[in-house]
Design goal:
Keywords: Hydrolase. With 156 residues, this protein is of the alpha+beta class. The chain contains 3 helices and 6 strands; from the N terminus they run H-E-H-E-E-E-E-H-E. It has a single domain, classed as Thiol Ester Dehydrase, Chain A. Helix content is 24%, strand content 34%.
């Protein structure tokens, strides 16, 4: 099956390209020369950028429609990146995102990087802030329901 770049992959496509389980959002791309370090491996900065690009797409497409009124600032509080296996030039890859847990104004996101097998994982805590940054903003109940129904997330 041909891998489609820069377009959300459906569950069938995700499984066909080696993911262990379909995720709510998955996008494919290919390693570029500019993303390599002096040893011709993907630079650590590139992994962070790939994860960030998909995390922003997840928030914009799967979270923002649930906010009424002024949209909160969704900020990253902390993240842990686990490098599992190196990547090299011209490798196709798929980056995924899903929410695993949530509280009143924050959620935990798990992201994965696949290229035939799992290459890296990132866990990030995201916080909804007031538009002016003055404090936390509660997440809408409809969004929390989506985290449970779509992503399999757990409250707490």
């Amino acid at each position: 099956m041909q891998l489609r770049y820069h377009t959300p992959l459906d569950p069938r496509e995700q499984l066909a390209h080696g993911l262990a389980a379909p995720q709510p959002l998955a996008l494919a791309d290919r390693v570029r020369f500019a993303e390599l370090d002096i040893l011709n491996h993907v630079n650590n900065k590139a992994y962070v950028e790939w994860f960030e690009t998909l995390r922003v797409a997840y928030v914009n497409t799967l979270c923002r429609p649930f906010f009424d009124g002024p949209e909160p600032r969704i900020v990253i509080r902390n993240a842990n990146l686990h490098y599992i296996r190196e990547m090299v030039q011209d490798e196709d890859y798929i980056v995924t995102a899903r929410v695993t847990g949530f509280r009143q104004s924050s959620f935990t996101m798990e992201q994965q990087l696949w290229s035939g097998d799992l290459r890296a994982r990132l866990e990030a805590v995201m916080v909804a802030m007031q538009p002016d940054g003055s404090g936390k903003s509660p997440l809408p109940d409809r969004l929390l329901r989506q985290f449970i129904d779509r992503d399999g997330a757990q409250p707490g």
